[in-house]
Amino acid sequence: MQSPLFSLPALPDIDLSLFINKPVFVAILVFFFVIYTIISSVLMYHWSSYGMRSAGVVIGETIFVLVSLALFTVAGLAINYF
């Protein structure tokens, strides 16, 4: 006994080149960078005001800034080589 053959419905062809291109990715990266900068400045102010500049707070701020710079650099390079 053979199983019945099922045909899939035809899906519409969506042109994604309108949404997936460098200018859109750059705009999204800039938007996230602005939001990230605002949130980071609030965090840095909080850590500086209420952390009393302990060694742990300074190390945490340094790691936060270095990792942030590395991630935004990788994101920028990824968009550049896209």
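Above is the first protein from milestone M3; the second protein from the same milestone is given next.
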Amino acid sequence: MKRYLAKLASDFERAEEFLASREGELGLKKLTGRLMPGAKCAWCFEDDLEGWKHSQTSMPHPKDWPYSGFIVPFPDTDGRGEMQPEHVCVVVVDYPIEKENPVTDWAVLACLLEISDLHRFYVFENVGFAAKLP
């Protein structure tokens, strides 16, 4: 566990530098939606697109993409409003796996944006409403 958390911390430390690079700018263009704390998210890769094309099905709505999770701020960052990409941790809850008991995983958003064959990272808009109290 310590090694896992050390890697997560290391990835967090290099996120800002990556996002400021040319590759980081390209990764940010694959991001759709506002980075709000607790928002659900989904993503897919170029391989997924090829699979959908091969099976002659149209690209599904992001809610049906193979990877999903939600976003949270890292500690000691401002996580009360829209977050900066370098401050976002992705909690991965659904992904293609052949195990019976998949585990939850955490990743730095910048690390996902760094994957060259990432097609799109989609953040769902939180639906809010104002409730009237008696």
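Note on the second protein: Residues 2-123 form one domain.
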